Amino acid sequence: MSENETAQQEGTLGMIDISTTAVTTIAGQAINQCYGVVGMANKNLANGIANLLSRDSKRGIAVAIEDGVITIDVYVIVEYGVRIRAVAESIQHTVKFHVEKALNMPVNAVNVYVQGLRMSKENN
Quick one: pLDDT at residue 110? Predict the structure, then answer.
């Protein structure tokens, strides 16, 4: 899927195109609201090391739009000591809710890939 993909909807006044970049922005804002997320990770881990990107980075989010259905892959680094499954489920629910609410389009899946753990500054 390329970054230039769009979802098209027929409105009463004409066509509406929604780019994957727009979906990525919405998903990124939703992820920043989730407890336990330290940052985004690069999805292309050639050397197996999870490089921490800034919290507002869109490089850790991949969006695919096919037949008006959205699939989102999220690559995150979570805080050490939190319940990883609970954080991942929170990300899934939050991203799905915000994207569907903003775009009025179904989100088929939000796949969460935990690329690493980081100690919080308070624990160091």
Answer: 98
